[in-house]
Amino acid sequence: MKHHLRDCPFCGATAAEDGLVLASEEHIDTADGEKLGVGRYSVHCYGCGVTVSDDFLDDCLNLWNGVQTPPDPGII
Ligand SMILES: [Zn+2]
Q: Which of 15, 35, 49, 59 is at 20 to 30 A from 75, Cα to Cα?
């Protein structure tokens, strides 16, 4: 399933098919095994490490596509 994702609003990484912004149905694990996000679905930028997540895919995509400012790292 191809998702419509905007390019990363933080670092400008491309969201094209071979880009650095990817949607996932699983939590993204960091290198040290820490779980990122609280929802089932995540959009993660491998360029700068930003992750947004939600329990619903559409909400997750809307969150990513609508984000204007960097989220508080303490709440994601
Ligand atoms: Zn980025």
A: 15
Is residue 74 in a domain? no
pLDDT band at residue 65, thresholds of 50, 70 and 90?
Answer: very high
Tell me which residues have their CB within 5 A of the ion that is ligand 1.
8, 10-11, 13, 45, 47-48
Summarised one tens digit per residue, pLDDT across range 30-54 is: 566 665 555 688 899 999 999 988 8
Residue whose token pair is 């997750």: 60
Query: Would you say residue 75 lies in a domain?
Result: no
